[in-house]
What we know:
Two copies of one chain form a homodimer. Chain A is an alpha/beta fold. Helices cover 29% and strands 16% of the residues of chain A. In chain A, α5 links the parallel β6 and β7. The relative contact order of chain A is 0.11. The interface between A and B is large, with 109 and 109 residues. Chains A, B: GO terms for molecular function: acyltransferase activity.
Amino acid sequence: MQAQRKLDPQWSKRRTEKHRRLASIAHLADGPVLRTADIVAALQALISSGDRVVLEGNNQKQADFLSRALVQIDPSKVNNLHLIMPSVSRPEHLDLFERGIARKLDFAFAGAQSLRISQLLQDGILEVGAIHTYVELYGRLYVDLCPNVVLVAGFKADRQGNLYTGSSTEDTPALVEAAAFRDGIVIAQVNEIVDDPADLPRVDIPGSWIDFVVQADKPFFLEPLFTRDPRLIKPVHVLMAMMAIRGVYERHQVQSLNHGIGFNTAAIELILPTYGEKLGLKGKICKNWTLNPHPTLIPAIESGWVESVHCFGGELGMENYVAARPDVFFTGKDGSMRSNRALCQLAGQYAVDLFIGSTLQMDGLGNSSTVTRGRLTGFGGAPNMGHDPGGRRHPTPAWLDLIETDDPLARGKKLVVQMVETFQGGGQPTIVETLDAVAVGKESGMPIAPIMIYGDDVTHVLTEEGIAYLYKARSLEERKAMIAAVAGVTPIGMHHDPASTAKLRKDGLIALPEDMGVNRNEATRSLLAAKSVADLVTWSDGLYEPPAKFRSW
Amino acid sequence: MQAQRKLDPQWSKRRTEKHRRLASIAHLADGPVLRTADIVAALQALISSGDRVVLEGNNQKQADFLSRALVQIDPSKVNNLHLIMPSVSRPEHLDLFERGIARKLDFAFAGAQSLRISQLLQDGILEVGAIHTYVELYGRLYVDLCPNVVLVAGFKADRQGNLYTGSSTEDTPALVEAAAFRDGIVIAQVNEIVDDPADLPRVDIPGSWIDFVVQADKPFFLEPLFTRDPRLIKPVHVLMAMMAIRGVYERHQVQSLNHGIGFNTAAIELILPTYGEKLGLKGKICKNWTLNPHPTLIPAIESGWVESVHCFGGELGMENYVAARPDVFFTGKDGSMRSNRALCQLAGQYAVDLFIGSTLQMDGLGNSSTVTRGRLTGFGGAPNMGHDPGGRRHPTPAWLDLIETDDPLARGKKLVVQMVETFQGGGQPTIVETLDAVAVGKESGMPIAPIMIYGDDVTHVLTEEGIAYLYKARSLEERKAMIAAVAGVTPIGMHHDPASTAKLRKDGLIALPEDMGVNRNEATRSLLAAKSVADLVTWSDGLYEPPAKFRSW
């Protein structure tokens, strides 16, 4: 299977180097299988100083056995690595920098490690190449960031290296291909190695793409990042969810969409079977989703609202529920889900009507960022889905509905909705004069400010006050006034002249709840189809198995 | 490998229906292997009226055995199919509509069939869903256009259905995954079925994703779409290529890029080793490419200009050359290339500095289309790569160089260059008052005009007259004047006041050859590193094997 042509050494330096490295650990390998105990020695031989190393680091799935091993290699032998990681999530990811094993970092997201990245950057211990969106980072793996070594995680492998990823396929295929097809080295940790290929439920990545598999000391870590406990949803979230349904989804006929991770959007999911049903909207809106398998979507699925959900990643506890609903979710012949972040981000960028998300700070023009002082979170997929993709050509009712001119060359627009409470918990205003990100960018010497979503891509701002239909703004001044009109008692909102609110309402540029037929008195938790995680389990007929930290029973 | 959980029939209708269809042809199948002679009967049983069917139809690779078989099914039994095709290229693709087997078409490109599609549309025999970019169409396969059946082509398969695509992997993985993981049916034609899995050079798509493989009556058709004969490159192309190098690539430090298919860009490729070398630009520009393996890139590769090329598809005759240059191209352990249109389009959208292409018509604001009267060509990948991706966050020198404000929130811009001669062969002006596409869109009842690239995404217009630096335009009026200034003796150019040219030059908004140090006298064919296909073969050391129609010896 690996017959090599006779190659001119001048044109096959990468392959020669790869074979040199593979040969150097031949004594440690049984075909593609490495022993668990040999992993540190193997990594030390397979990786060279200055290499570009992809470490998986996804939003949920973590190749944590490999990252814990990588930290143990000798920095006097292997150092100055350039790490490429979709998501920086684990302490050892940054230990690599403190130990001098790694030097440069290109990444897309850093949830739990965002404070420490910021600190290491200030201390000169870590150098950031750039903060990316996920797909942008994958794209560079095939252009100017081709990796030497790729370290990933799967569920099972056979002794030929065939890999079964389980539900959490996530970023793995896009990361592996970049090395497998440019003479890089691919190493996969798995929870189990099976002797008989027929014992693999299915193959997600062929063995001919993978150099080594190694059984991890314990199953890979998976973070339940998309589970929102309905108990924490407040009446204000319900009010905003009602406005989203009437003032955005119903009004523009939003049929395909992506939801962010917050309680706001969880509230929308949970009132579809109650409030949405009452409005007669089932089958008319919210049919096709690009979304992680949110537990809060279970009642809408069970009530027949949802035709399809394609997933970026999996969600811990949702495996059996997803497998039991193959008409809705993407599952393989073996019955388990295959998620795929690259394809789902592509779909979320190009094929859905609407992206709705939240942010920590938004300025008066609608620019937003999750980067605040001392916190370098990165953006994940938001900038990719939260912009109007200029390459889109197919029309849908929602997309066409945002055309505001009679220019014969006019095109539709993706709906990008910022759904924010005007204040964060702790009394910090969400809507601010200037984003912290501007100063952070300057102080960190970034060539551009780390903006998550640019104001000119935002079509709607939805707060507890109302909705600003920004796509209708005819000038920057008007856009500012519209945002200020729904900015409540934030400094931006306080500068707003209340007299102009009436005119903005009359012109249809903003709408208050009553303008869209939303009754504030109805906005109570009783509209939630599930009020607790236990309710979600009941809706799922016991198929959803929430992680321990979400169980109160 | 295919153990099924006990599923609630209400939630597994797709799977039940799939199993019903598979069972109906159990007598025709030997595991996943179908006999060549049974294909029409099998398709007739596996496809139902009204199904969404993906037929591969790519830019180059054609599942032509399957399309020829599909045309033979009985339209009284199977009809009203909704065809989804990246590229409509073969006569039988449209025979499907004339025979009533298919009714609706969603597609991205239609080269040779563009006239006939237009005719069938007018005659009411074919209904167009939308014209897409490639990635947009893939995205919809996971959202609102999930296919029931996917018909693809590969090079070899084994008796477990494992698929080796050869160099022309192209769209196949993105198409197959959409059906394999939503209980659709996947059928692959191959040139050869091998008994021993070890006889597959590598696996591109695992057998557990594929339902049936069938040996085609003859090898799949592959169109050499990206081969440009250097003999047809004219001095004016050389002049424009010189301007591109000095006025765009050198000026903005373009390091990563995509080239279109025309003689203009072929000329750039061919003068890198001569003109580019003389300017000392090697290693400074044009290092990382997203590109089909253009034969005209061979001299630049051989001269050491090119670090990497990731390919959308393959190119007939380039197989051995590509396999012999693994440091440059993406090849597998077996030594042959794996192209991947989805990933390459992602890279071409998000990871490269520049897209440069040509068009049939451009209006005075820079809007362009290849759709002209009577010709519905579609757009392929151009709209995807020819726009500024709003989700991009990583900086490169070229991207940053296009910032024209001191706004602290400013971001860079992708370079989108339209490189056009002011007149087409036959004396038709390229730069026109109004695009034909506007009328075509109206007459065909399209909800938006079929624009390929929108003017506000175009950063540079390059004609034989000079370069308009559109990204510097401060108003629509100024943009118009800049384009008119390089529009030559087209109607748009004739209305231009020559007096204003001097001011535009002085302000650096446009540049004539002399302004960028380009000597018109040097613009001769003698700058071409290869002047014929035979020269390309020589450069390649005999590795490039041009198709017969490009051989004159």
